[in-house]
Amino acid sequence: MERFHHAEANYDIEESDVFLSGHHACPGCGEALAVRYVINTMGPRTIAIVPPSCIAIIAGLQPNSSMRVPIVHGTLESSAASAAGVRRALNHQRKHDVNVLVMAGDGGTYDIGFQALSGAAERNEDMVYVCLDNEGYMNTGAQKSGSTPHLASTASTPGGKTTGKKNIAEIMAAHRIPYVATATIGYPDDLARKVAKARDLKGMRFIVVLTPCLDGWGLPENGAVRVSRLAVETGFFPLFEVEDGVRYTINHGPRGMPVQRYLEAQKRFRHLEAEQKERLQAEVDEAWALLRARVECGALPAATGDSGDGFPGR
Amino acid sequence: MLLTGNHAVAYGVMLARPAVVPVYPITPQTPILEKISDLQLAGEFAVDLMTAESEHSAMSACITASLTGVRVFTATASQGLMLMHEMLHFASGARAPIVMVNVNRTVSSPWGFWPDQTDSLSQRDTGWIQYYTESGQESLDTVIQAFKVAEQVLLPVMVVHEAFYISHALEPVTVPAQDVVDAYLPPFDPAVRLDPGLGRSWGNPVNQDLYFRFRQAVGEAMDRVPGLALQADAEYEKMFGRGYEIVERYRMEGAEIAIVAFGSMVGTARVAVDALREAGISAGLVKLKLFRPFPIGEVRAAVAGVPKLVVMERNFSPGAGGILHQELKATVCGMEDPPKVHGYLAGVGGVNVSPAKIEALVRRALEEEPVPQSVWQR
Q1: Does some domain include residue A20?
Q2: What pLDDT does residue A1 have?
Q3: A279 part of a folded domain
Q4: For all residues of chain B together, what is the average pLDDT?
Q5: Contact A199/B at CB under 8 A
Q6: In DSSP terms, which residues pair with A308 in a beta bridge?
Q7: Which residues of A touch B47 (CB under 8 A)?
Q8: Whether B64 and A77 lie within 8 Å, measured CB to CB
Q9: Residues of chain A above pLDDT 70, percent
Q10: Residue A275, Cβ neighbours under 10 Å: how many?
């Protein structure tokens, strides 16, 4: 059994009991674990928006619900706009203590929901947007999305995806929103801390959570947490935070474990040749060099500082 | 005040006091958005104006803000309405009493900016109540009435007027006093709303039986609309001195032929009817203000005993013809001694339909037998 390092979180998880057992996720589902830490950290004074996705299935079939908060199951591409509508109505009602949360999949975030997300970020809408990222359209049978990694096999890219994964965290950081973070279920203390941090900030907050999909990735029922940790330890999925679009913090650096260890744990990479695996290792190394450079850029003094309107003025 | 149709709408919206207005610019709607922005900046209109990045997002935000329990307005036209299409269905299914003004404009392709009603008429199956108006004054008054009706049946309402003929034409408009509007339109405060204290959700998947029941409930709410719309209009007339009914009869005494029209064509047809009567032809006019739900009872009562009806369309459904023509044929079918219905595609694409043209088409209809199809007549 391999040994994993703890993320540098040092955070005690405080859970409310919003998320209930008896939900509709597959046994061993990585996403259900993410939903638990996200919604239980956001707490009972929350209204959640979910688009069609595995999360919507987990949330339940009417008249049942697995979450003790109001849920709006909206359309696939409109989550961020729908959340903005709720927020603005709550503001009119002076219910400033109620959190507005989106829990969307990667298809609803990277692809079809991206316009609404980018618009909401540009307007610095006051919400926590969590993308539960299983790197494909898993609810419809594991087709490729804009989040599917390079060379991964899916139902619509059976020979392996020929292009790379969008870097959604960088894209959101480029909107200069107050908070962007990456997290994954293998590090629940780090995940819960980031959700709590996002919850207590104002404006647009975005967290992408890597949530391994047993069926879509080809994992055993007990494999989601292990592969989530391998994703971080091999550097395939870095854990980091970005404040105001520029101040980067790496929470957990790679520990020299080869990417090969992550790839061989999943059926979706089983078809890869040695040369392709080397290429993925090189891509991960390059991405890390870029991320480290961003950390150094973020350490530079701010150009103009805060403009005072709640939006970073750099 | 001397106002364009779109600016009249903005004043009507302000008087109705919506809390949230998510909106996206599009010609020829934009003056509505601009005037609301000006009124907000001037401190006259306390509203949360959300400058959405698309009409789809604007309508998405309208729906959830409405479900959270506040009054909501938006406006659009043409391509914007097309982009909203998915959310229009969602809004009525969610029973969100949104009021939206659509400024009729041709739908691409090819591109055009002209008055043509196909944009809103092609949304007739989305579960929205639809009103068509013939003046800026009527648009202002109808926006206020629309909130009253929407909030009683919990269905969204589209108030529709046409590009330029109404939207940009200047007319003297009476802007009602705020306190009278407040007395007419009470604050929107729904018992069921999105609230962590209530725990209600919306949109989770349902089984076939539940879906059936939700659709039936939408239908039953629609069925209540003609009565409630008449009531809202009668009350409005009492308080403000202006009423429109949902189906108006103009010079229908002893009519041998009646023009059936909606939107800006109504004003033109009034002039044509006067001229025809002057010339000894017993022509009348039936104005259709409420198009969805289609007021079958009121239309049948208005046209009973009239031998011929004639429609000049400013819309086109390829493969079916003029949309009002179809609706009218369906409405008179089953009447005892039903009128014959003539349909002319006369104003498609914003082509001008002058009083003289209407007179000529009425004379032509009197002389020929109708055909099942709508006839192109430029």
Answers
A1: no
A2: 44
A3: yes
A4: 98
A5: no
A6: none
A7: none
A8: no
A9: 92
A10: 7
